Amino acid sequence: MDTWEYFTTTLATNDENLAVPISDDIPHVEHPRYSTYKLIPQLNHFGRKGWELISLEPVQEGKNGDLRTCDASSSLWTYTYFATFKRRIPAG
After folding, report:
1. Assuming Cys at both sites, which of 26, 34, 55, 66 could form a disulfide with 79, CB separation 3.0 to 4.6 Å?
2. Dist CA 58 CA 61 (whole Å)
């Protein structure tokens, strides 16, 4: 039976130091300021540590670390995403 551990965090695209990676899979165009392509290096960082992304949801983060979900019926704009990862715990 597989055993898993989970990790949650928020990822954001508002950091001016984050660049859209250069890749054949990413369109070679001028990307918007908060392009979701800026998430790729952050996601790859967790992937290299063995974490598998299982969900990514747009949210707004409050001053106390509370989160507000953003859905199609809201008029909220966000550059922050709530990410849930999992990785297998080795047997032993």
Report:
1. 34
2. 10
